[in-house]
Amino acid sequence: MADALETEALWEDFHRVVNMTSAELAAWLRVRDAEERSEPLPDEAGSATGRHVLAILQKRRTDLTDDDVRVMYKVVDTVGDLVDMDDEPEPERPDGTRRRHRLMTLGHDPLKP
What we know:
This protein is mostly helical. The chain is built from five helices and no strands. Helix 1 packs across helix 4, helix 2 runs antiparallel to helix 3 (48-57) and helix 3 (48-57) crosses helix 4 (66-84). It starts with a helix and ends in an 8-residue tail after the last helix. 22% of the residues are buried. The mean pLDDT is 82.
């Protein structure tokens, strides 16, 4: 696993970009996966990465695994890339709804202050 200073910096970056609470993210993952005729079990809702982000939000920094650290780096990089794209119009939906939903699946709501 990464050294203590690197893990601490990553922890701070992760919690800076993941601005949704664990309750908000859990609710979003359930809503996002709900279909007209079925709804997944709460523990199975959302993407694997979204569920992993949720699990990390419920941990203490000292309990992180190497897999958690890998996912945290991925989320920080992905959210950073997608937020940087906010100035570019989204061809399919000019209002950016698709990008917002993708960010929310990673725990970042761009409309949240």
